[in-house]
UniProtKB/TrEMBL annotation:
GO terms for molecular function: kinase activity. This is MacS family sensor histidine kinase. Residues 396-413 have a biased composition (Low complexity). CDD domains: HATPase_UhpB-NarQ-NarX-like. Residues 299-393 form the Histidine kinase/HSP90-like ATPase domain. It comes from Streptacidiphilus alkalitolerans.
Length: 413
């Protein structure tokens, strides 16, 4: 796992590597202190040769494992467990090697502060929880060495646990910050690549499609139909580029995307209505994301689609349609207006009596289920306008929209 992370972070500063260098340096310095401290106290030990043998094993182990404790890629839990076991063994052996009177008087153990280096290793590798557990084990070993609980034991345990927890918590924050930075750099690189592709497409494909549309209209006949199709593709491609370059309204840590998105998760209404644009359908929306709960956004988009079906069916294929999206503080309003022949106000009631429920169910019914409304205005010779209003829910959806607007405003200023 560590090797993979190092490869992924190649070329990016790692906040963990300096911490592992600090662990290595602290292990060596505390070992030198432990050996020097024992050398000064060896005279009163009951079994100095055995104590020197332990100090030799501890020294060999510490120097032999410098490479393993130099990076996360090499330092696994088993190395830390072995280091902790050796330190705890030294603490417990102190009572056997030293004079009982010295132990009862509070003489330091053989590993002394070298035990803190072990706790530091647990902090850097696993965070504050493993560090607290390692500190507790060292503290219990000290109590066992003294044979009873003393104020000095409690003091040392509290200090060791506080140090391990504090360092472990800082390490967890640093690791999370590093992941956030790496994700931000990935997003920045992807955005730059999309912008480059957008420029290339604009300079090439879109200009060719626009030229085909103009020439097709000029030539007429079959060429006009080809030009119309080219115009539709140009609009769709422009909408796709705009959607890809739109700022992300909310940032989350990387996670696995489900094949079926959460229906309650906020969706950008612009992304749902953008594909409806064509040579005779114009979609106008705000520059910032228009977020609604997933179900509300889908139902509102379906109602707009039903309104467009009515335009094609009753206004004719040559009718022009305009879709306007308005993101108000308390509601999202979508207006669908066409330049067709229109109809009399009584026509909707007559159609419903005849069993044709397209407007009452596909449009008004959907909006009614969302707690919104659908107003249809038409007059003979003046086209038709359908105004769909969905109230904005207080809470998650509105908060997400406000956050998105603030983020977009900040990125553009």
């Amino acid at each position: 796992m560590g090797t993979k992370e190092n490869r992924a972070g190649a070329g990016v500063f790692s906040v963990e590597q300096p911490l592992w260098r600090a662990v290595t340096a602290f292990r060596l310095l505390t070992l030198l202190y432990a050996v020097g401290r024992y050398a000064g106290d060896a005279a009163h030990y009951a079994h100095p040769a055995a104590a020197w043998a332990y100090m030799g094993v501890l020294s060999l182990w510490t120097f032999a494992t410098v490479r393993q404790f130099a990076s996360k890629a090499r330092c696994t839990w088993w190395w830390l467990y072995a280091d902790l076991a050796l330190v705890v063994a030294g603490i417990l052996l102190t009572r056997s090697f030293d004079q009982i009177a010295q132990v009862d008087a509070g003489e330091v153990t053989l590993p002394t502060v070298r035990a803190a280096a072990t706790v530091l290793g647990f902090s850097v590798l696993g965070g504050w929880r493993p560090a607290a557990l390692a500190a507790l084990i060292v503290g219990l070993a000290n109590i066992g060495e003294r044979g009873r609980v003393t104020s000095s034991n409690v003091h040392n345990i509290v200090l060791l646990m506080l140090a391990g927890i504090a360092i472990g918590y800082v390490v967890e924050l640093a690791r999370a910050s590093e992941q956030t930075l790496a994700r931000a750099l990935e997003i920045q690189a992807a955005t730059r690549e999309r912008e480059r592709l957008a420029r290339d497409i604009h300079d090439g494909v879109l200009q060719v499609l626009a030229m085909v549309q103009r020439r097709g209209t000029e030539l007429g006949g079959e060429a006009e139909e080809i030009g119309r199709m080219a115009g539709e593709q140009e609009i769709a491609l422009r909408a796709l580029i705009a959607e890809g370059l739109a700022p992300n309204p909310s940032y989350e840590a990387p996670r696995r995307q489900s094949d079926h998105p959460d229906p309650g998760a906020p969706q950008d209404l612009r992304a749902l209505l953008g594909p409806l644009a064509g040579s005779r359908v114009t979609v106008a929306a705000p520059g910032t994301p228009v977020l609604l709960p997933g179900r509300a956004a889908s139902e509102l988009s379906a109602a707009v689609g039903a309104a467009l079906d009515n335009v094609r069916k009753h206004a004719g294929p040559g009718a022009q349609t305009w879709i306007l999206v308005e993101d108000e503080p308390d509601a999202v309003v979508v207006s669908v207006r066409d330049d067709g022949p229109g109809f009399a106000a009584s026509r909707l009631g007559e159609a419903e009596q005849e069993g044709r429920l397209g407007v009452s169910q596909s449009i008004r019914g959907r909006l009614r289920d969302l707690g919104g409304s659908a107003e249809i205005t038409s007059a003979a010779g003046q086209g038709t306008e359908v105004e769909l209003r969905v109230p904005r829910q207080r809470g998650k959806a509105s908060g997400a929209s406000a956050t998105a607007a603030a983020a977009t405003k900040e990125s553009t200023t």
